[in-house]
UniProtKB/TrEMBL annotation:
The keyword Signal applies. This is Peptidyl-prolyl cis-trans isomerase. Keywords: Isomerase, Rotamase, Signal. It comes from the Bacteria. PPIases accelerate the folding of proteins. It catalyzes the cis-trans isomerization of proline imidic peptide bonds in oligopeptides. Pfam families: Pro_isomerase. It catalyses: [protein]-peptidylproline (omega=180) = [protein]-peptidylproline (omega=0). CDD domains: cyclophilin (cd00317). Belongs to the cyclophilin-type PPIase family. Its EC number is 5.2.1.8. One of its GO terms (molecular function) is peptidyl-prolyl cis-trans isomerase activity. Residues 1-20 form the signal peptide. Gene3D superfamilies: Cyclophilin-like (2.40.100.10).
Length: 223
């Protein structure tokens, strides 16, 4: 059975084969941080990338990053929290700038128990990733148990420390344990688009499956 990254994880991803040299602040993806603090991140090569992409830079500038998913059903603007989850935001921004998410589908929607749209796997099957992984961030290990409320943007995973490229957007409050890195929010205009997607549900009216209408990310912009 293929191991799938999911917000209801029970399978552990394959262990990393070695730790990569992750680059420096001279990388074209590393912003000129000036006086802005930066986090040091470790990205571990796992192999088997669903789509070829380089490793993110090791230095992650902190602060807010604006990103927009341009989809076939409308734009979904996001606000990424680089203060609480700098290494996650660094990785996701890098993947977006590299075109990793372009022309990919959001492969999963849930309409019972939890209420999320999951995206980020170029294979469209829920088992693909970028060929590297990185550690969990907020709220994991913080002692906090925040609500995965409507509008929260978080990472899907296949167990502790297996973050890659897949993420989910909550279109309603979802009762989940604090095991999934929260790294931003969906802007109000994006929530309108998510609501329209959610109304159509999953294929065949299933509580969990592919969206009834294909949701394709055509391009992602990062400001």
């Amino acid at each position: 059975m293929k191991k799938t990254r999911t917000v209801l994880s029970g399978l552990l991803a394959a262990t990393a084969v070695f730790t990569a040299a992750c680059g420096t602040s001279d990388s074209p993806d590393a912003a000129d941080t000036g006086d802005v603090s930066a986090a040091s991140c470790e990205y571990t090569v796992t192999g088997g990338a669903a789509k070829d992409v380089n490793l993110p830079p090791a230095e992650a500038p902190q602060g807010t990053v604006s990103m927009t998913l341009e989809t076939n059903v409308g734009d979904i603007p996001l606000s990424l929290d680089g203060d609480r989850a700098p290494c996650t935001v660094n990785a996701i921004s890098h993947l977006a700038r590299s075109g990793y998410y372009d022309d990919t589908v959001c492969h999963r929607i849930t309409t019972a128990g939890i209420y999320v749209l999951q995206c980020g796997d170029p294979t469209g099957r829920g088992s693909g990733g970028p060929g590297f992984s990185y550690a969990d961030e907020y709220p994991v290990g913080s002692g906090d148990s925040p609500t995965y409320a409507a509008g929260v943007l978080a990472m899907a995973n296949a167990g502790p420390g297996t973050n890659g490229s897949q993420f989910f957007m909550n279109y309603r409050d979802s009762p989940l344990p604090p095991s999934y890195t929260m790294f931003g929010t969906v802007e109000p205009d994006g929530m309108k688009v998510l609501g329209e997607i959610a109304e159509k549900g999953a294929v065949g009216g299933a509580p969990d499956g592919a969206p009834a209408e294909e949701i394709r990310i055509e391009h992602v912009t990062v400001d």
